[in-house]
């Protein structure tokens, strides 16, 4: 049997190999033996999704603990944690439509992106927390955004420009890193400058 004819993506190769193994198991009386050079990577690829999800969950819990330390307000921590979760879900979903498979390279890029996804959220939540006092919600949000909005835009713009300089490198690893970085920056800015301010503005202020 000649394997992987016309199969380019790792996902399709893994799917075909799993089907062959199922057929060999079903007809065990024929004493079928499967061999393919790719087989040595198959088991590794099968462990990547659960390992990635477990690591993402642990990272999100760690970020939640950090937010609890620096912004000890439940009404601030909960929206912040859900924003981090939303950003990462957006990255996972959009990478699928961007034809990025779950492999060791994309796994490493995603795990690096988790740390950056909390950056924008941490800044806006901390500045909103520091403005708590006798002022109303509008004044709190205005003061927080006036302090952090422009620096956030500058920081994320410099990140995007630095990453886009790598576009000239035709490497799968580099392309995955670029796509993940762009998604995290864009989604992080949307959540930090639009979603969270709207959520915080809708919450009651306790004097």
Automatic annotation (TrEMBL):
Membrane topology annotation: Multi-pass membrane protein
Specify the SSD domain's residue ranges. Answer: 73-202
Q: Does this UniProt record's set of keywords contain Kinase?
A: no
Please state where this protein is localized. Cell membrane
**Assigned GO CC terms:** cytoplasmic vesicle membrane; plasma membrane
Q: Name one GO biological process term.
A: endocytosis
What are the TM regions of this chain, as residue ranges? 51-70, 77-98, 148-169, 176-203
Q: Which UniProt keywords apply?
A: Cell membrane, Glycoprotein, Membrane, Transmembrane, Transmembrane helix
SUPFAM superfamilies in the record, alphabetically? Answer: Multidrug efflux transporter AcrB transmembrane domain
Q: Which family does it belong to?
A: Belongs to the patched family.
Q: What name has this protein been given in UniProt?
A: SSD domain-containing protein
Provide the species name: Acrobeloides nanus
Lineage, top ranks: Eukaryota, Metazoa, Ecdysozoa, Nematoda, Chromadorea
